[in-house]
Specification:
single chain, alpha/beta
């Protein structure tokens, strides 16, 4: 079974998926945000299509560990998603995931629009890889 990770932003959701052995993460796609109902349906389709056993949602915190308005939005979003899915939804600290994703894409030679198109999925992969490497369960909703 696989694990799916989401990097939820105001306009896009980066999506990453693990391999079946839950060792490696890779960026899967970027979902353009619509209504919550549309977003949840898109995630539910991915859960079913890829036989996902849990969904990890990146939980934004500042470097000092405090949460702010975006964290509150993501927490409410993840709680709604948990009600819409049949698999557990976990919050996972995503500090610096976008910064890491941008660095990885820059090192890969991607710039401009190509980089922008992929950064959200790569950020989700960074979140997921951190989760997989930790061996922890996270905070289930």
């Amino acid at each position: 079974m696989r694990v799916l990770a989401l990097d939820v932003g105001d306009r896009r959701i980066g999506v990453a998926i693990s391999d079946p052995s839950q060792v490696l993460a890779r960026g899967l796609k970027v979902i353009q945000r619509g209504s919550r109902q549309e977003d949840f349906a898109a995630v539910a389709r991915l859960v079913e299509e890829h036989e996902v056993e849990r969904v990890v949602v990146g939980y934004p915190r500042s470097l000092d560990g405090k949460t702010h308005a975006q964290a509150d939005k993501v927490e409410r979003y993840a709680a709604g998603l948990a009600k819409a899915l049949t698999v557990p939804v976990l919050l996972w600290d995503e500090r610096l995931s976008t910064v890491s994703a941008e660095r990885l894409l820059r090192e890969a030679g991607l710039r401009g629009q190509k980089k922008q198109e992929r950064v959200d999925a790569v950020a989700a992969a960074v979140i997921l890889q951190d989760y997989l490497d930790s061996g922890k369960e996270g905070n289930s909703l």
